[in-house]
């Protein structure tokens, strides 16, 4: 039993280290792309800003009224809930009326919340957090019913786990909830074994629409 646990831990550490290497390489590419994009934007502004305005109009895509995903949750034998319909992935500049709390996917803002083990003590915008889920992050949320001890223990666990983020969501149904793209479950506390299982399965899991995409270089409080 001990050797099996050690093997699982070693495998998970190797997986996290590989994600970190991928993240660092992606950050270097993103910095180069950002510099190039900045030059293009400045040139566009000198010409008159017409291209930039048109691009922003196109990027808004769906509005809050027509971006709502249709579907419902089905509960698996392991207690994980799965959204029944395909979740849209459009970038929008407006608020999104998500059919679940916290949201597990759908249209979202073009900027993600940093999710490299980031802990936010204030509520974050759903539209930014959903973009993090698209990149393969797990979002740990809690409300005022969660114990202070659990919140602190969860913070420590999140800080040690790349591709995770944590924030309060007061109007969620249960004290502590875990969300990934199209997936969600409730846990009883920081010591609930289902917490580690959810991390192992859904951090950069098969459900991820954009595996390996950045979890840094986005929005931070």
UniProtKB/TrEMBL annotation:
Keyword set includes 4Fe-4S: no
Pfam families: DUF3105 (PF11303)
Ranges of Basic and acidic residues composition bias in the record: 14-25
Residue spans of biased composition, Polar residues class: 1-11
Keywords linked to the UniProt accession: Membrane, Transmembrane, Transmembrane helix
Superkingdom, taxonomy of origin: Bacteria
Transmembrane feature ranges: 32-53
Chain segments carrying region Disordered: 1-25
Name of the featured protein: DUF3105 domain-containing protein
Lineage of origin: Bacteria, Bacillati, Actinomycetota, Actinomycetes, Kitasatosporales
